[in-house]
Amino acid sequence: MRPPIASFVVLLLVVAALTVIGIGGVHAEPIPQAVLNGEQHIAADTAQSLRTAIDAEASTVRRTAGAYVATDTSTPATTLKALTSGSKSVLGGALLDRHTGKLLAAGGKTVPLAGVNAKAAAEHGAILPRLVTSGGAPQLLYFARVTLPAQQDPDQDQNQAPSRAERQWLLAVTEALPAVAAYGDGRGVEVLDTSGTKLATAVHGKASPAADSALPAAAARAAHGSGSDTDASGSLLGATTGSRRTVAGWAQVASATGPGDTDDLGLVVLTSHATPATTTAADYSRFALEAAGALSALALLLGLALYFCVQRPLLRLYLSAGRVARGAGQASQDWPAASSELSRPVPLHGFGELTRIGRALDALRRQLLGESGPQDFPARRGPGYRALAVLGVLVVACWSAPMVFLLNRADTVSAVPAPVLADQQTRTEIAAGRIRQSLDHSYTELSAAAAGLPGRSRAAQTEVLRHSLAEHKQYRSLYLLDRSGGITLRVGGTPLRTLVHVPDGGGITTVNTSGRIPAIAAYTQVPAVKGKARAAGVVLFGEIDVQALNSILPRPKLGDVWVTDGREKVLAASVGYRAFQSLPNSGLTRLARATQSAPGTTGTATSAVHLTSSGPSVDAAAPLAQSGPTARLGWHVVAAEPAAGLQIPAVQAEQRTMLAGILGLSVGVACLGWLHVVVIRPLRAVAVLVERLAGGDRRTVLHPVNHDEIGSVTRSLELIRQALAERDRAARSGHVAGPSRPLPANTLQR
């Protein structure tokens, strides 16, 4: 009996303390934490885009060098020209001998080769890209190995036998840093080296990257202090200008998933944006104290009510039942002693079941004294302790229900600060840029594969496609179409293509409109062989594995992200989805349409706060259609992040208020339910049995279920039943006129 009552009071007091700690700790800062976190995530997203661009370029340089087929007439100069002339991004190139490090050929701008160990690069694998300075401008130096036949060794001594070992040269090319894009009006982006020197900048709108000169050095120090955490990121607060303060985010460009091409560069991305400071202060400490005080008062009042209405009356009943049982046991041996035990009436305490048991117990006492016979009890009874438990739950619910449904409700629109909504839109634009970057890369690689097909045999073409499929994991299938749309050559998985068409030009498209998996494909025309008629409308298709796109979309605190086509049907997503399904709610669909990203137009990103079943959701949509192979798609990228996942003071206060209410109600239901199981329900059962016993039922044995107060009362009643049964048997046999031989008080007889 005591544990559920004590636990009920103590746990309600604990909930009150948590209410003070949780809700009282919510404060509205001039710059909300959600804004700082948003800027940090924007920097991390931008760093990932830069990392992807560098990795893709390093892979392209290595692929180009690996695909080069040297001939007997190949010289360092012709080899270098063949490897670099096809790329517009190459500023300068050089070929080195792996044994001596000797410069064999050079072209374009001078390539800084200080510290390059060509022999080590050839023996231990490719050298990672390096950050170099040429002509005062920062550049990236990429490396790749070029393998030549044995007879191509230009250093072979004419008097020695020809060596049959393959020979390797080292290709080194310099390129400018990949361009970084700034999204969000008034935001600046800077790429820094390890010392905080600016290497590249980008500005969107009227932002000035140099508005706070201390931020680059602070970001470099923070990145350096992150140690071995290669994907570290963070946020900074800059100078205040008027009512606006600069909020900055920084992130390392180094690979976050293991060794990568950007690990040795030491690049840091710094984003900054001037944000208006919040002037309205929100302090929930007073509300927390009032709510906790009310709950504490309820806990103490309910605890006292349970003590005076349940615990103390039950303990007194336990003593009275023991006294009557002792009197019944002593009746045949020591009648005066038994009479003194039985002469005192059983006091009635409490109400409901305890009153019923006390009244029936007093009737049994009188029957033991021979003052009365069996007694009937009314069938209709007043409210019992079950009603008390329900009333206790309702009292707690009177505190919990307003906490859950009414108090500290966050307004759907005004609860989310405008900078947080703008950050969600910015991050959605960056996500669209990552998807566009991936699709552009797929198209570029497919075009490179198509350039190696003309004039080759079918077996050679098959080998080219197999090599391309092995090199680029984003493809699931590569195939050639003739003018009629039939597949003439295929490598990889079975095509998902259901649309039979032979498009002109090249780009990205979908090749099915239904099925379990959306089929997104890059396509390009196969060039005609010089001097011959153009091939019969041959087009190379590369179906892109949708999982490759799905893996790009998830980002911390961006929420659920979908890629939709022009009809707002889902093609890829960061969460589970069905192919070509509609967006989860009409608000997201309207948001996607509001981008006005019809095929051939750039469209405009947009954002809004929508109220969903789980609370406010910060949603944004950005068009994918811009220049390049994705320009004619009319696709969108849509993101939805529940406001509950962001550190917004109004939303935090609502969440914690609801949590306190739920905890309070759960404690009330659990503890009072526990009291009902271990006290109230057994009391109801004992009340029925003792009334039957007082009504003359001597055959029903009373079994104690638990070793507690109610179990002790049940054992006492069983002793009384046995004494009455023995007396009745003796009376019927006519041997004795008074109480029968006593039964042991510490045993039960059946």
Give structural notes.
By secondary structure, the protein is α+β, with helices and mostly antiparallel strands. The chain has three domains: 1-26 and 306-408 and 658-750, no CATH class; 51-154 and 162-176; 418-647, 2-Layer Sandwich (Beta-Lactamase), CATH 3.30.450.20. 42% of the residues lie in helices and 19% in strands. It contains 15 helices and 20 strands. The protein has helices at residues 2-24, 33-67, 76-84, 118-124, 214-225, 285-330, 335-343, 353-369, 385-405, 418-451, 458-471, 546-550, 586-594, 649-694, 709-733; strands spanning 90-97, 103-108, 130-134, 137-148, 167-176, 187-192, 198-204, 233-241, 244-252, 268-276, 475-481, 487-492, 507-510, 520-525, 539-544, 560-564, 570-573, 606-612, 615-623, 636-642. Strands 2-1-5-4-3 form a five-stranded antiparallel β-sheet. Helix 6 (285-330) packs antiparallel against helix 7 (335-343). The chain is elongated, with a radius of gyration of 42 Å. The model is unreliable at 736-750 (pLDDT under 50).
